[in-house]
Amino acid sequence: MDDGPVYAERPAPAGLACLWTRTVSTPTVQRVVPDGCTDLMWTPAPGALFVAGPDTQAQLAQVAPGTLYGVRLPPGAFPSVFGVPAHAVRDLRVPLSELVPSARLESFSDMVAFCASRVVVDPVLSGTASLLRTVDVSAAAWEIGLSSRQLRRRCLDAFGYPPKVLQRVLRFDAAMRLAWSGLPFASVAVEAGYADQAHLAREVRALAGVPLGQLIRP
């Protein structure tokens, strides 16, 4: 019988990225890698609600037996839901009560409703995330009509990263998805926008702490 973690996603209401659960039967250590998103998570026992801020590097999380429930926000949505800039919780896990003391959530459906009712993504910033997948930072700033300094400030507030770091994280996340699909690593590097496979390997080690082959191993 397989006692490994069981992770599942399902569609979320408009404005949210996805809903997810992770169930483990024995204590385990999970490697969480940067993806440009933030999550509200709930563990039924002891009923802890906490917010996972945007990560700049891999985090090793101790996961107790049971089911962890999560609501994933799209990039840029954090300030509207939690009332603070995303960079304030970068690389942190913070109790929801510290950010929104008035929140009274008692179930997964409460979590979903809470996030869905508050989420707002500035269309300019949503476009920024898309642009940074294909062009450099200065070109993205010019395209959306902001100075480099304005773009940096707005990216820090909305995404938790300066633009160049956001670009690295988005490219890494795209590479991960391609690698999980079974694409050869050389092709992953080309499709995700890396200079070559060696560049991909360096970036994966920098952001995830392990080689790509180890990272996607079942």
Can you walk me through this structure?
α7 packs antiparallel against α8 and α7 packs across α9. The strands form 2 sheets. This protein has a 6-stranded antiparallel sheet with strand order 1-2-7-4-5-8. The chain has 10 helices and 8 strands. The model has no long low-confidence stretch (mean pLDDT 91). With 218 residues, it is of the alpha+beta class. It comes from Lentzea rhizosphaerae. InterPro entries: AraC_XylS_family_regulators, DUF6597, HTH_AraC. Keywords: DNA-binding, Transcription, Transcription regulation. This is Helix-turn-helix domain-containing protein.
Q: How does the major sheet shape up?
A: 6 strands, antiparallel
Q: Strand arrangement, largest sheet? A: 1-2-7-4-5-8
Number of helices: 10
| Percentage of β-strand residues | 15-25%
Unreliable spans = none
- Name the helicity range: 40-55%
Q: Output the helix-strand order.
A: EEEEEEEHEHHHHHHHHH
Distance between the termini: 15 Å
- Number-wise, the strands total 8
State the shape: globular
Structural class: alpha+beta
Mean pLDDT: 91
Alpha carbon gyration radius: 18 Å
Protein name: Helix-turn-helix domain-containing protein
InterPro entries: AraC_XylS_family_regulators, DUF6597, HTH_AraC
Domain HTH araC/xylS-type: 130-218
Pfam families: DUF6597, HTH_18
